[in-house]
UniProtKB/TrEMBL annotation:
Region (Disordered): 70-100
Annotated InterPro entries: Ribosomal_eL13, Ribosomal_eL13_CS
Name of this chain's protein: 50S ribosomal protein L13e
Sequence ranges of Basic residues compositional bias: 79-92
TM regions (residue ranges): none
Natural source organism: Sulfuracidifex tepidarius
Gene Ontology molecular function, alphabetical: structural constituent of ribosome
Keyword Ribonucleoprotein: yes
High-level lineage: Archaea, Thermoproteota, Thermoprotei, Sulfolobales, Sulfolobaceae
UniProt GO cellular component terms: ribonucleoprotein complex; ribosome
Length: 100
């Protein structure tokens, strides 16, 4: 089964044809910043990032905001899981220091 990955669309013009829309490789870092997403949130939401792209399209920023809203529950679960993991690490470290 193929993983579900969110990718942007971009438009390009060809003088001989009508404007086309094509699926891109990923969102630019500028688009991620404008949408208010961090790199860890992007990984959690399974969104592709194209680090070579420098352009920022409002359509893609809006798409990212929509993805962020839809994935809020997933982000909260990931945050809780990370906090529990850090808590267990801290407890383990304290236990090892007591043994010494």
């Amino acid at each position: 089964m193929e993983p579900i990955v969110k990718r942007p669309y971009y438009h390009f013009e060809n003088p001989n044809r009508v404007d086309k829309e094509k699926k891109g490789r990923g969102f630019s870092l500028g688009e991620l910043a404008k949408a208010g997403l961090t790199k860890s949130e992007v990984r959690t939401l399974n969104v592709n990032v194209d680090i070579k792209r420098k352009s920022v399209y409002d359509v893609n920023v809006e798409a990212l905001k929509k993805i962020k809203e839809e994935g809020k529950e997933k982000l909260e679960q990931a945050k809780k899981k990370k906090m529990e993991k850090n808590k267990r690490k801290a407890e383990k470290k304290k236990a090892s220091q007591r043994k010494e």
